[in-house]
Amino acid sequence: MSQKTQPNSSQTKNFLKFKPLKRFLQSSLYPGIFQWLAVIIFAVIMVETLAGPTNAHDNFGTAATWVLWWPLLPLFFFLFGRFWCAVCPFAWVSDLTQRFLGANRKVPNFLRKYGLWIIDITFIFITWSDHIWGVVESPRGSGTLLLLILGGVMVTAMLFERRTWCRYLCFLGSLSGNYSRTGMLELRADKEICKTCTTRDCYKGNSKAAGCPMFEFPMAMENNANCNLCGNCIKSCPHDSIRLTPRKPTSEFWGMTRARFEESFLAIVIVGIVFVQNITMLEFYPTYLKWAELSLGIANRDIAFTILFVIAMTTPVLLLFLATAISQRFTGETLRTAFARFGYAVIPLDLAAHMAHNLFHLLAEGKSIYYTFMGLFGKHIEGPTSFVSDPTIQIMQYTLVISGTFGSLYTAYRIAKKNYGTKKALSVAMPYLVVILIFGVLNFLTFVVRMDMRM
Amino acid sequence: MTKNFKSSLILLALASNLLFALPMMADTKSAPTSTMTDQNMSGHSSSEAAHGESQATEITVAKDEEFEVSVQTDPEKPTPNKPVTIMISVKNQSTQEPVLDASVNVSMMLMDSGSHSNMSGMSMDSDTTIKGQATLDNMEPGMYAVTLTPTKQGEWSQDIQISSPTHGETTLTVPLTVSKTGPNWLLIGSVGGIVVLAGIIAQFLKRKQSTVKEVQ
Ligand code: SF4
Ligand code: SF4
Question: Where in the cell is it found (chain A) (predicted)?
């Protein structure tokens, strides 16, 4: 196993030294109270999206999901890592189903091996289907997606052990995993203490808490991808080995020793997905699609979109491969290894662009959450939906995208430095820096034009 | 290993079921956001659409030399077999005065009901062609209203014939989308069915596991 690479500061500042916090995390209240709140809201969202008004404008489920939850999610990942997954109602359903009906079978090898690829494909499929059948702007579409996820969660919980869905199949989980790696909070175990441990309660579980639901062994954990801060290991570890520490954003990538091709691939696919989401919400998009239809000679809008979608998905991947091929001259590594290593560098930009895009929905349409909520009680309220003016939102979006671009540039440089030394770092990183800059500029440009509302 | 393989196969089959169920079962085709988004007046090309603040108050406006007509429906998103009130406001184009002496007839035809449409895309059955005469309504001067009940979901076309002894005649064609708004029970039932099936398989596996343990 590769050596430990965490920043040292993480060991010095431990939030669990703050006794009330530790007691709370060890109590049965955590994460229960957050979960219950999420479950209640989720139940309302499910009913609303499946049986409520068909007009997104009037549907509380649509507003709560796409104007509140989805925009806040990336911010959560950045601040608290994958904490959302600890309170996610689907995870709650999974635990409950498993407790009563679970066969607790071992996770099939093919899921362990190809789970991330399944997620990659599902993610692309969902993004595509959103534009073909309507998911976000159609309450029934959103309800269908939630229902299918719920079905998937229950089926896997009945058949397999722990949170198989969350770890190996949830597209949102893998997105959280990716984004939370840039995050400012990490949970790790003190390896010195763990070396002497014979019980491994954190993994196996004990009377205080079940074993890690995410199949993680805190002692061997090198990244945030799969820890959802559920607190089980804080409860179960008999040796007080768990640390909860702050860290610099993106610092996880600086010392990363293991890179997985499929994780990098997902990161680069998200570049395309975020770009598609941005472009399709711009006011000129329908005209552009019409133009594309005419110039491609295609009478069908869905086919025209599919062609553009494929181009948008493959271009970032090809650009990164190109950068890898150029940088290979200095590294001598295989294309696959180098691609896997540097793909992570785009995650800060992914996160920033995702946040920037959704910031518009949150701040320009935020009041619709209240209006639609009142609609649940038969009160029809109309009015302006924005909290702040468009130019203010735009400035915030620019700031985010610029920060994300710098974050990605710096991450690419640090990855090169760690793997090829300070001398070679800049020349190895240069092709990646250029590609990241292109992504950054393209994203920036999409925020220059006004977006369409979701509600 | 073989057991794992079997469960993988089961999972895969269920997952692909769910995946393919999406396009077939979900009633999610993103419908046009308004019920009336396009219109034309026979013999005249000038038309424009005005959108209210909320989609629920969406109004379609059409103009020709004599008339300025605006059309709205209540409810804004009609559903099959539920009455929908079509409100037609008729004004004199040049003076903007309400036209009070018009005779307004509405004829609705089902253009495309997805799987049920015939070759020409237009259905001529009695339940897919509905007619009614709009009468002056008290809500506002020059407003004519008629309540009709579309029988099926799909794209309907409304021909609105306006004839006034003082202003002449015109015909306006406005599309109307009729869609189901209730939950998609087929989808919900299918997901539920798959979950129940998985539950049965899980119980079967559980029992098998405990039998193996007992034997050991
Ligand atoms: S975290 Fe605790 S239970 Fe887990 S290996 Fe370390 S000391 Fe043992
Ligand atoms: S490592 Fe600990 S906090 Fe993280 S998911 Fe596992 S048990 Fe929960």
Answer: Cell membrane
